Amino acid sequence: MTQKNKLLTLSSFNSQYLKHIWRDGFQDENPEWTKWNAPYFNDYHAYPSFSQFEHSPITDYLLSDSCKCICLDGKGIGMVSKNWIDEVTRWLEIGIVIYNPTYWHGGIGGRVLKIWISEIFDQYPELEHIGLTTWSGNSRMIHLAQKLGFKKEAQIRKVRFYKEKYYDCMKYGILRNEWIN
C-alpha cells in the first residue's frame, strides 16, 4: 500500500502517539529532521528514555492546543502547529515536522497541511491570513508552500547562519479568499 492510500488524520496527542514521536524524533542524538527544521537554532535535545521525553518541555508543547499529531494509519509520525505571532492583530503562523524520513517525499506534508489550514480557517472565521516561515536551505518546504498556493511575502537575506554559510529567512502566507477559491 502506498502512502497516498493510507489513512491520514490529525489528532490530539496521547501517550501512544508521544511514544511514536519519541522513537522517531527524539531518541537519537542527531536525527535527520533536525537538519531541516531550523537547525541554526541548535536547540535539539535527545531523550534517552521515554520517561525523560514525557516530562520534557517538548511534550508540554505537543500536548498544548497549539499542536496536533500527524497520524498515518494510527501511528504518530509528526506534528503540525499553529502559533500566534500577535493574537490581537490576528497574525498566526503554522508549522509541520514529519520526524521519520521514511515518510518524506510521499505527499503526506501537502495532504496534512491542506487539512490543517482548512481546520484553522474553520476554527477562526475572523482570521484572514496564515503564515509559514522557513529558511532558504529547506527547498522542500519552500516548494510545498508554493504548491499549496502560499505567496512569498518576505525574504530576509543572510539572517540564518548554519555550517559556515548564510541563508535567508523565507516568509510565506495565504489569505482566506485564496485558500477557499
UniProtKB/TrEMBL annotation:
Residues 20-168 form the N-acetyltransferase domain. It comes from the Bacteria. It holds the Pfam family Acetyltransf_3. GO terms for molecular function: acyltransferase activity, transferring groups other than amino-acyl groups. InterPro entries: Acyl_CoA_acyltransferase, GNAT_dom. This is GNAT family N-acetyltransferase. It comes from Lactobacillus johnsonii.
